[in-house]
Amino acid sequence: IITDKCIGSVGDVRTVVLASQVPLNEIDTILMDYQSRTSVLLAKVLAKFYWKKSFRWDNTFSGFENKLIEGNTAGVVIGDRVFDIEKKYKYIYDLSKEWFRFSGLPFVFAVWAANKPINSNFQESFSNALGLGLDNIREVSSQEQDRYPGIDIFTYLTGNIQFVLNDQMNKGLQLFLEMAKKLEPVELI
Predict the structure, then answer these.
(1) What domains, with CATH codes, occur in the chain?
(2) What pTM was computed for the model?
């Protein structure tokens, strides 16, 4: 991990969900969002260790969230697409909130990492660039607000998303990694 920045959440993140027309206990198949292995792995960890339920897991394609989530089939949906579907489905399980209920810890969806040593000047410049973006979050929010009518982007970016990899975030990350290692190899696919 090359910086103290991350993309995480304490409780509701809003944009990483399990969407369904039926309650959790009636779901038998979960469609895996093709855009995030981390979010799918989170759903698998929650299924095994928190919900204590087995599901059939199916791969997806672009647009699946508008066509295939029906009956006893749910879907892990991430990103801005959640804003478009959150009223379409009767049950929306926020996976970060479910993780917090289960573990009492925040969830880290992404960090910036390198698999070989990197130049300390680059590391400092990179961290400063991330900090600059965070320092200008109000301006960025107002520039993007028109794309998301009905969503308060500033509140989303400052209330739902956490950007500092502090001790609690790191504890949540380590616990998640430990639990993911306990999944069967077939569950990691």
Answers:
(1) 5-110+158-183 (3.40.190.10)
(2) 0.93
